[in-house]
Amino acid sequence: MNLGQYFAEAIAVLGANRVRSLLTVLGLIIGVTAVIAIQVLGAGTAGAVSGLLGALSDRTFVVLPNQQQADFTRAAIRLSDLQRAKDEVPNVIAAIPAGGQRLLASYGHTHRRITFGAAPDERFATSTPLRFGRKLSEDDIAQSRHVAVVSDKGYEKLHMSGDPTGGSIRIGDRRYTIVGVLGTDKTGILPVNFNLDVSIPYSSYERDFVRGHAIVFARFLMADPSKVEQTEADALHWLRHLKGGRVEYQTFDRKTFSKAVDGIFAGITVVVGLIGAVSLLVAGIGILNIMLVSVAERTREIGLRKAIGATRFQVLLQFFIEALALSGFGCLVGLILGVAIGAFVNNAFIVNFSGVVAPIPWVRSILIATIFTTVVTVAFGTYPAWRAATLDPIEALRYE
Amino acid sequence: MNSARHAIDVQDVTKTYVLGDVRVDALRGVTFTIDSGEYVAIMGPSGSGKSTLMNLLGCLDRPTTGHYLLDGNDVSKLSDDELAAIRLKKLGFVFQGFNLLARTSALKNVALPLFYAGMGTRTRNARASAQLAEVGLGDRMDHKPSELSGGQQQRVAIARALVNDPAVLLADEPTGNLDSQTSEEIMALFEHLNEGGRTIIMVTHDEDVASHAKRVIRVRDGRIVDDQATG
Description:
The structure holds 2 protein chains of 2 kinds. By secondary structure, chain A is α+β, with helices and mostly antiparallel strands. Chain A has 2 domains: 3-53 and 258-398, no CATH class; 60-253, no CATH class. Chain A has helices spanning 3-16, 18-54, 72-75, 79-88, 138-142, 152-157, 202-210, 228-243, 254-297, 299-307, 312-354, 362-389, 393-398, and strands at residues 60-65, 77-78, 92-97, 100-107, 110-119, 130-133, 147-150, 168-171, 174-182, 198-201, 214-215, 218-222, 249-252. A 6-stranded mixed barrel of chain A has the order 4-5-10-7-9-8. In chain A, strands 3-12-1-13 form a 4-stranded antiparallel beta sheet. In chain A, strands 2-11 form a two-stranded antiparallel sheet. Chain A is elongated and about 100 Å long. Chain B has one domain (39-63, 80-229): Rossmann fold. Chain B has helices at residues 50-57, 80-90, 106-116, 121-134, 150-162, 180-195, 207-210, and strands spanning 8-19, 22-34, 39-43, 65-70, 73-74, 91-94, 168-172, 199-203, 215-220, 223-229. In chain B, strand 9 (215-220) and strand 10 (223-229) form a beta hairpin.
């Protein structure tokens, strides 16, 4: 049995009815394109999110008062509260202000309002790379030094050029020596990091800016990151007890974000799965229809083939392979378009945003296209092929 | 009983169609033999049963009762796929309407039976082109049916019928769609093939055409009414 010959013949037949064949598989192309594009996009987004989360320490979580509550003032976290946290909440080894504020800053002749705030110490560090100089050290924090690290955004806002380390920057009415410039901050889109233009040691921040003021949110450092849920619960319980009951706080950690993103993607996957199933059904019916038309049109041809000795199986195979070639072509085009569109949107938006390039999920995409081809062919191509195979040659030859 | 092997040995064959409550006796007991190398015309008015007889001889249908031995094998009780195998190996068909695949070259049309016989492309093409040359179309192999005249199309169909070297060539009104001059050409080709040893059975209602055959079997009301060699 020469399958290649059957395929060659099927392609010739479909090619002779080019417009009809194309219109028939259009639904399939759209369905497969949509499903695969979303897969590629999903992989890109998942890669971006895990890239971002990877840059985020799993040893910290953030606590902030809920915006909507009766006594917001009472709920405000103060520096004195945080100083007690490490002694009173199990598994917490430090709690620092993570808030920031907008103040006028001057560098050279540039005066701009910037966001600045407390930089976490090494134990809280993110993996944001350095462009110039160094990060803040334990010593800077221990001695509350007047030093600052500028982010890539701050670098632009203050019109810096070259290596500004060693220079000085004025924030409010205080001066800090620039010791380092950060590269692109991949955690920038997450609310745990405040997207600070300029960071100073949290000890300096406490001393120069926080004293007496409320803290927007606080960053807690754990000794054992595996106990994050228990520690968050303990911290909330402790804060409520400290503030006297009717106050509400929320916490954020790496898992919170992963869960939120996972939830969004589970929803998208279900919706796209449904679209895929519907398009599969519609495309399948289209192929069923056109194959029945094709069998009817070629009744005499089928009669002839049987008269010269084609078995039922050989006729069945011919039409089955035609359906397979049709759906295979549609799925192949859908695969290529889906990957192209998915990769394009991914590059245009997600990679641009996160800087993380996730690999295209080829295996999964090809698997989806293959499953679509198989299901459509078997479910909707078998009946017309069977009809052709069981035609009576005498009747078929007489057919006008 | 003569046990010599005939190309075709039809023994008391009947064919009855039941259409709802109506019983149609298309063949009411037909017995004859055709030897290898004969050239036979089957004639009869419409409704005489000649088409039914042709379908039975062509293994497209099975007799209701009786036996049909083709090339020594009883084919009266075979399954559809077994009959297909017999048609593939032992029979060649030529139709009134040529029945060529429209978008396919003459060469590939002729090679089609060899495809179903499971031969490789090279063997198929070699045998098909030799067969086309034999019917005088060696220079038209890559032409599609629409690029050929009626006579040429029928020649392609004849080449297709012969390409698997069948025991019997069956032709159903082979000149029905052709003008008289082209018909003569096709008849000349049949005569040439018969002289080369081919067994040919031809159904026709045209006396002129039938006169080319060496024996004429006349059918009427499902029975053979006359069977004699022509002068």
